C-alpha cells in the first residue's frame, strides 16, 4: 500500500533534521512542497533525488486530486512545508483528509516546530498553551480576537511577519499593558533572538531596533491568572459583576461569558439578566 508521509523539516538550521526524515525523503517517489526553490536547497544538502511538486494554498485543490491519483497508483509521497511541520499553519489539511477518505495510509515523520521551540526558551508557563497560528490582518478583527483569547489561563502562541509584529505588540498592550510577552526570531539560526519582558518594554525594543524587525516571528503571550477565589463577587448582582469586567476593558459580550463561567451559569441566562430581557 502506498503512503503519504508528513515530514517535518528544519525551521532554520539544516542540521535539525532527523535521520528518519532524510531516509524517507530519499526513498519516496515524489515530494510535495510549498516552494520548490526552498525545498531544493534541503534536497541538495542531503543528496535527495526525489522529484519535487509544488503544493500550496493557490493550487491545492488541483494538486490534491493529482497527488491522490499518484498515491492510488502505488507511489509514495512526502509532504513538506518550507520550514517546520506541514499542516501547522501551512497547507496540507485537504490532502490528508482526501488520503484518509480514499483509504490511503498517512504517516507522520516528526520534526522541529517554531512555536514550541520559542516556548521552551521563553520562560513563560509551558504546561498549558494554545496555538493560534496567524492572527487576522485587519486591526479591528485582530483586537477583537485577542480580547477573547487573552483572558484564558494559557500561554498563547502566535506566528507573525516582521511587517506586522510591531502592530500586534501595540494591540496586546492596548488590551493589557501589564502582560508579559516573548518574541522569538531567527530561531535555530546564527542570530537567534528570544526576548521575554513586559509588553511595553518589548515595544520599546522594537522601536529602538534592539529587536530587529527581520525574519519570521513567534509571539508568545503570558496567560491570564486563573481566578480561584470566588468570594469577591458573591455580594455583587449579576449586573454589577458584568459591569466590573467591562470596567476592566472587557467587551460586554466577553464580560457576560466570563461571568457565566465564574458563576457556572448559562451565558444566555446571564445575558438575559444583564439586559433585563
TrEMBL record:
Enzyme category, top tier: transferase
Pfam families per record: TP_methylase
Keyword Transmembrane in annotation: no
GO cellular component annotations of the record: cytoplasm
EC number: 2.1.1.198
Key word Cytoplasm present: yes
All copies of domain Tetrapyrrole methylase, residue ranges: 3-198
Keywords assigned: Cytoplasm, Methyltransferase, rRNA processing, S-adenosyl-L-methionine, Transferase
InterPro entries: 4pyrrol_Mease, 4pyrrol_Methylase_sf, 4pyrrole_Mease_sub1, 4pyrrole_Mease_sub2, rRNA_ssu_MeTfrase_I, SAM_MeTrfase_RsmI_CS
GO MF terms held by the record: rRNA (cytosine-2'-O-)-methyltransferase activity
Cell compartments where the protein resides: Cytoplasm
Catalyzed chemical reaction(s): cytidine(1402) in 16S rRNA + S-adenosyl-L-methionine = 2'-O-methylcytidine(1402) in 16S rRNA + S-adenosyl-L-homocysteine + H(+)
Chief place where the protein resides: cytoplasm
PROSITE patterns: RSMI
Assigned protein family: Belongs to the methyltransferase superfamily. RsmI family.
Reported function: Catalyzes the 2'-O-methylation of the ribose of cytidine 1402 (C1402) in 16S rRNA.
Protein name: Ribosomal RNA small subunit methyltransferase I
Lineage per the UniProt record: Bacteria, Bacillati, Bacillota, Bacilli, Bacillales
Name of the gene this protein is made from: rsmI
